[in-house]
Structures are given as C-alpha cells and as structure tokens.
C-alpha cells in the first residue's frame, strides 16, 4: 500500500484526483463530491487565501462552522505551508492566533480576521493560474491540535509535515482503511480524532462522511449516507443508541471505534445488541495517536483493559527511575510510535517532561501483560495517598461500575463540612442503585479507603472527547 502515501495530504488528494477522479471523496448532507471536484475546490480556496498575503510563520486559526468549507480551508493552508489549527471561540486566546479565518462576524483585536465565504469554492469561476507551490520542509510545523485539557488549559501539540504523514500511515494500518472505506468521525475537527481519521481516509483513497448528529434519530440519519466506519466518544455513542427506533435494523456492516474515555458496560452491551457487534475500544491521545485496540466484548470482562498494542506502537511500563518493569507490575506508561509529536508550543517545561529520549510519557499509570494487553489504572497526578497506600480514583471507579444501578461514576477528593478532605463518588444512578451497597463495596474492596461520600448527579462533566473533567469534580462536593 506504499503508493497511497505522499508528503502532504493535498498531494495525496491530488494524486487520487488524477488516477481515480470520479471516486467519492466527500459525502455531505446534500451532495456527493468526487476527488476531482474536491481537489478543484481546495485549489480555489488556496488561491483565495494566497491572495490575502498571510505572512509565513503565522498561526492561523480556522473557525468555520460549515464542515466542508472548514476542511477546504484547512487543507488549503497546509498546501500553502501555513501553520493552522481548528479552533472554537474559546480556544483563540490559548492558540495566540495571528490570523483567524471565520465564516461569521468575529471581534478579535489580538489579530487579523479573514472572512471565509462558500463562494470561494465555486467551480464556475475563471480558470486559475498555477500556485507557486512551496517546498514542504518535512520538519516544519504544519498543524496544531489542542490536547483534551482535562485538568487545565489545553496544550498545543504541534505536528510537523513528516509527523502528519507518519500519523496518517499508522492510522491507515490500524483502522484497515482503503478505497472502499467510508469514514464518519462524529468528533469534530477540533479534536485529534476528528482531524486524523478523515486525513488517513483521504490518504488511503476512501470517502469521508461530513454529517453531524441528527437531533431525533442520529444513527438512522447517519447511516443513510453509508458510513462503514464510525469514530465516536462514549458520550456521543450513548446519545446515538438511546434514540434508536424500536424497529431499527442495521443495513450493512458497521465498525464502531470508541475513544476518549472508558466505555460503560451497559453501553457496550446495548451497542453490540443493536447497531453493531463490531465494537472496538481505542486507547491513544492527541500526541501519540492510536496505541491499543480491543474488541469491546473482551474489554467488557476485563475492567481497565484498553486493548492490545498495535504495531508500530511500543509500550513500556517503567518505575520512578525510568527502568522498565516486568509484565504484571504497575508503573508509569511510556510510548513510542509513528507520528508522535515531539513538543508543545509555548511550553518548553511540559515538553521536556513529556517527551524524553524518544518516548512520550502521557502521565498514565498502567500494567502491561505478557501478550501485549495494556490495562490503564489512572493518571499519575490523580493518585490518592491514604497513609502511604496509593490508590488511583480510576481503579475505584472501575470497581464501583460493576454494581447494579451505577451508570457512571467518578471518584475524587473534596473538602467536607469541617474543611477536611474526604473521598467522594459522583454517581449517575440507574433504577437499581443502592447507595449503602456501594459504600460497603468500596470499603470491602479498598481497606485503606476512608468512608465514601456519595453525590448523585445527572451527568459527569466531560470534554469533547468524552473524558471526565476531574478538575471540576471537587465543586460537586462543596456543601
């Protein structure tokens, strides 16, 4: 499959447009766009942007609401060698953008605003002269993706041209993408899944479905457009499954990949009973991409299992000195693979901490089995210490999730009425929930754990990837 891979995403799209011009590249709500037309639209948008004379080295934020135009602007910026990021309005300050390209009125005194218009891609415009194509330095920064930011301000992970190409190659292999693939990433382009999976699909010559979730019947609405691969967060999957009609029957094979946070057991079962038996759990991150995959039916019976390490990824569990630990022992996770970013913009200290000696340290505590199976036990910074006994809140969460009536749970420390720290569990409760049973189970399972305080909530705070925002949990425990 090596002929699929080119230096840039645009060069791959242009190659497909030359070799298979009538194959489908994009499926929108109201149109199907061939590779030939897709490449032409990118060319026209690139000309529009080039005419605005954005200086080399600028950080360009794309804040365009229409998904197709957003992608055209993004790929055009890559073609022109300009560093870009997809951003919500709240992200602009974090990005320190010099230029913002938006399709709506925007007040941004910190930089220049360029108004994007759908007419940029009109194909009945006069023929264009060839652009002066830049030489793409493989080590030049090309794309900024904001990390999930579960504990504070998101970090700015920066991909070079070469790292983007390597990430695309790794994703094509991991997700078995090819010309027959129809990829739908329900996560938005501001997330790494919403960016990387479409990029890999176009690299492989497949089709990308750019359709948002429908309010009433999201899955039947999406399936009308024929996706055979869906990338989705647990929160989004729950919204999809809950609204399925009683008589719903899938019309074709569907591979569903769930990433961003743990998939509750009840959601795993409901999904496999109705939309698809082919349900997969993904472990990875903005910085490193996909590291492990596991069939949900296996992960359901092994709490904490994230999956089996997918080549070319390599995973080690190390102690505090950085020495590798044998299989079965818990320690800090470190990873190296294709397409890993090597720095955060504007944050040299965190870069030095997370990227060391060719390895990425995501800050997870985990156990690696003899067969390459990875169990994640939580985050290093979240580990709670009770009289010298260290317990990860995620380990407690996994134990409590096994109880009847516990739909979701997140354990955390918060001040009690006396101002002392206590252990709390925020619980989304189902009909069979029994608070006393949960407290007894926690005490029996973790002898060092102080008495648990239960706080019932309607939902847990989560980010766009579905990860629990643990920094917001202590507010739930405030009297």
Automatic annotation (TrEMBL):
Q: What is the top-level taxon of the source organism? A: Bacteria
Tell me where in this chain the AMP-dependent synthetase/ligase domain is found: 14-345
Which GO molecular function annotations are given, in alphabetical order? medium-chain fatty acid-CoA ligase activity
Please list the GO biological process terms of this entry.
Answer: fatty acid metabolic process
Q: Does the keyword Ligase apply?
A: yes
Write out the coiled-coil annotation as residue ranges.
none
Kindly state which keywords UniProt assigns to this record, in alphabetical order: Ligase
Q: Which family does it belong to?
A: Belongs to the ATP-dependent AMP-binding enzyme family.
Protein name, entry field: AMP-binding protein
**Biological source species:** Caenimonas koreensis DSM 17982
């Amino acid at each position: 499959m090596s002929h699929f891979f080119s230096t840039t995403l645009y060069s791959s799209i242009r190659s497909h447009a030359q070799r298979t011009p009538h194959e489908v590249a994009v499926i929108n709500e109201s149109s199907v766009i061939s590779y030939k037309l897709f490449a032409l639209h990118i060319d026209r948008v690139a000309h529009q942007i080039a005419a605005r004379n954005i200086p080399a080295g600028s950080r360009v934020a794309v804040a365009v609401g229409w998904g197709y135009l957003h992608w055209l602007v993004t790929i055009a910026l890559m073609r022109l060698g300009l560093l870009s990021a997809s951003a919500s309005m709240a992200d602009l300050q974090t990005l320190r953008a010099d230029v913002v390209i938006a399709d709506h009125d925007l007040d941004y005194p910190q930089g220049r605003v360029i108004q994007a218009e759908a007419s940029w891609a009109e194909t009945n415009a006069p023929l264009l002269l060839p652009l002066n194509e830049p030489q793409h330095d493989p080590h030049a920064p090309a794309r900024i993706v904001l990390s999930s930011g579960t504990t504070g301000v998101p970090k700015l992970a920066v991909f070079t041209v070469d790292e983007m190409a390597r990430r695309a190659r790794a994703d094509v292999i991991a997700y078995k993408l090819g010309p027959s693939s129809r990829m739908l990433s329900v996560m938005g382009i501001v997330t790494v899944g919403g960016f990387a999976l479409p990029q890999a699909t176009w690299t492989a010559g497949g089709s990308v479905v750019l359709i948002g979730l429908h309010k009433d019947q999201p899955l039947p609405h999406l399936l009308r457009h024929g996706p055979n691969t869906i990338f989705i967060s647990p929160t989004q999957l729950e919204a999809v499954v809950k609204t399925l009609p009683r008589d719903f029957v899938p019309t074709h094979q569907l591979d569903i990949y769930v990433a961003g946070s743990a998939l509750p057991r009840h959601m795993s079962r409901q999904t496999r009973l109705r939309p698809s038996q082919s349900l997969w759990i993904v472990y990875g991150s903005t910085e490193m991409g996909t590291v492990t995959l596991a069939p949900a039916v296996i992960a359901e019976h092994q709490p904490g299992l994230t999956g089996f390490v997918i080549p070319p990824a390599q995973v080690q569990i190390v102690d505090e000195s950085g020495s590798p630990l044998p299989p079965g022992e818990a320690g800090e996770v470190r990873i190296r693979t294709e397409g890993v970013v090597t720095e955060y913009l504007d944050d040299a200290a965190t870069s030095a901490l997370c990227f060391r000696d060719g390895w990425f340290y995501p800050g997870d505590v985990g156990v690696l089995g003899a067969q390459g199976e990875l169990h994640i036990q939580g985050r290093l910074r979240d580990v709670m210490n009770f009289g010298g006994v260290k317990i990860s809140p995620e380990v407690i969460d996994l134990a409590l999730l096994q109880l009847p009536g516990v739909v979701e749970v997140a354990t955390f420390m918060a001040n009690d009425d006396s101002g002392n720290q206590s252990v709390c569990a925020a619980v989304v409760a189902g009909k069979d929930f029994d608070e006393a049973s949960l407290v007894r189970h926690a005490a029996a399972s973790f002898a060092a754990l102080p008495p648990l305080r239960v706080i019932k909530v309607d939902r847990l705070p989560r980010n766009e990837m579905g990860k629990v925002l643990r920094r917001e949990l202590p507010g739930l425990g405030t009297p």
